[in-house]
Amino acid sequence: DAGVHSKAWYAATCDRKMAEDALYRSNKDGSFLIRKSSGQDSRQPYTLVVFYNRRVYNIPIRFIESTRQYALGREKSGEERFDSVAEIVENHQRTSLVLIDSQNNTKDSTKLQHIVRVS
């Protein structure tokens, strides 16, 4: 379970719309939660949902079978890999996460600062 089920930021029963609604309600840059990915694909088990600059970003969390590690977004050379989903969160509470808006081709960055609970 990647150590996510006991974490405050893990929204177990949450779908994409519920996650986005909760983050829009929080309306704080750096608000985030992690939910199960919609596709239920073992290679992309979770999604990191982040609010920044009045937008919600859904960032896939990939599971890399060969190394039993996790990484964010699409595969790229030199990407950061983590031993657990919790490590991704802890890392990006300290260091900024790059947010790529593929529609407008812009880049922003924020730290994961505010855990959002879905009611």
Automatic annotation (TrEMBL):
<dbReference type="InterPro" id="IPR036860">
    <property type="entry name" value="SH2_dom_sf"/>
</dbReference>
<dbReference type="InterPro" id="IPR051751">
    <property type="entry name" value="Immunoreceptor_sig_adapters"/>
</dbReference>
<dbReference type="GO" id="GO:0005737">
    <property type="term" value="C:cytoplasm"/>
</dbReference>
<protein>
    <submittedName>
        <fullName>BLNK protein</fullName>
    </submittedName>
</protein>
<dbReference type="Pfam" id="PF00017">
    <property type="entry name" value="SH2"/>
</dbReference>
<feature type="domain" description="SH2">
    <location>
        <begin position="9"/>
        <end position="116"/>
    </location>
</feature>
<dbReference type="GO" id="GO:0035556">
    <property type="term" value="P:intracellular signal transduction"/>
</dbReference>
<keyword id="KW-0727">SH2 domain</keyword>
<dbReference type="InterPro" id="IPR000980">
    <property type="entry name" value="SH2"/>
</dbReference>
<dbReference type="GO" id="GO:0007169">
    <property type="term" value="P:cell surface receptor protein tyrosine kinase signaling pathway"/>
</dbReference>
